[in-house]
Design brief:
Two copies of one chain form a homodimer.
Chain A lengths: L1 H5 L1 H21 L7 E5 L5 H14 L3 E6 L8 H6 L5 E5 L5 H4 L2 H19 L4 E7 L1 H6 L5 H9 L6 E5 L5 H6 L2 E9 L1 H5 L10
Parallel strand pairs in A: 1-5, 1-6, 2-3, 2-4, 4-5
């Protein structure tokens, strides 16, 4: 195995095969359209991945909309970094962590107000990418009407990409998504090793 | 289930319990230190997640180093977006996709040169976060000496965070990591639906 991996001829042959496979797949995949991506599961990296896609989209000159559900109150590193970008519209649901408010009616109200911000983006083809961070949590707690959310997502402009993050994605959302990634925890310092959540990578 | 989730008292009780659990866990986790995160698995979002962490770290005023292994040649959206940031040092391994070069010796040379750039960051405590994008690929193809890589990672400044991305993370790397997330594909438009890889979210 080790020797094969290092053998230059086998290596070149494998890479050539890989290149052909990728080109064939690219040729098959013809359709250009906005995709709905769902990033879910208990592992780290769901929101980070969404924000990485924001950076990528901005790098391509796109206009980006971001709505953060549930987490509010204190500014995250991402918020500080992206909020003032001229091509970014940023809204944070104003009620802080739900376990700090402990008031369902207020949570529902805040979620509905945040969804209105999202809908404005989902109706505007100027937005190339819309990130709905932690929307899955708002759906799971039924802060929002799921049917309305799905309708609004499906009615978006044809070329608009949407990224939805959060654990426990609803099956109905997965059904209408183009791409779904499930993040699994293999090992976690915060849980396993007594290391505090670290600013910069986790907060 | 649906009714329970909507009951305000049960909701408040559950949120209060969640808050206590989180506070207890935070109190237990005392140690402040740089963490080594590994993002692996076949699902989407590994590199995006790393770049999201870059944005987060920059939002906290940290200095960030980025080295991209394997993928080079054309500028990604992330590269365009982050390369000129005053707090970012960015290096891309210069040889393009390995399946374009098909030359093992050149790949090894390029990987070694890229590792030297990484080592300069890993020895400099001024860098709060170092992203080693797709390093797992370079290790898997044995373009780099694994023992040396692990030694350099472990010898880094105590408060420095490192994020390593790419499929098929080596077990020896997982062993020294603080947090490991495995991205699993649940559904993929590019594979399943004939949709071309989309600029902004995937390229």
């Amino acid at each position: 195995m080790r020797d094969n991996a290092k053998d230059p001829e086998r290596h070149a042959a494998r890479m050539a095969k890989k290149k052909r496979a990728i080109e064939a797949r690219m040729a098959q995949a013809q359709e250009d359209k906005g995709v709905l991506l769902v990033l879910t599961g208990p592992g780290k990296g769901k929101s980070s991945s969404g924000f990485g896609m924001v950076a990528r989209a901005l790098g391509h000159g796109m206009k980006v909309g971001i709505v953060q559900f549930i987490k509010g109150k204190f500014a995250t590193g991402e918020e500080r970094f992206f909020r003032d970008h001229p091509d970014v519209t940023y809204h944070v649901m104003g009620e802080g962590y739900t376990w700090d408010t402990q008031d369902r009616a207020r949570d529902e109200e805040a979620a509905s107000a945040a969804w209105e911000k999202a809908v404005a983006m989902l109706r505007d083809p100027a937005y190339g990418l819309v990130l709905l961070d932690e929307l899955n949590i708002a759906l799971r707690y039924e802060y929002l009407d799921q049917d309305r959310v799905l309708d609004d997502l499906m009615a978006r402009p044809e070329m608009q990409h949407v990224v939805v993050t959060g654990r426990n994605a609803k099956q109905e959302l997965i059904d209408i998504a183009d791409t779904v990634t499930e993040m699994q925890v293999e090992k976690h310092a915060f849980k396993d090793g007594g290391v505090r959540a670290q600013k910069g990578v986790e907060l």
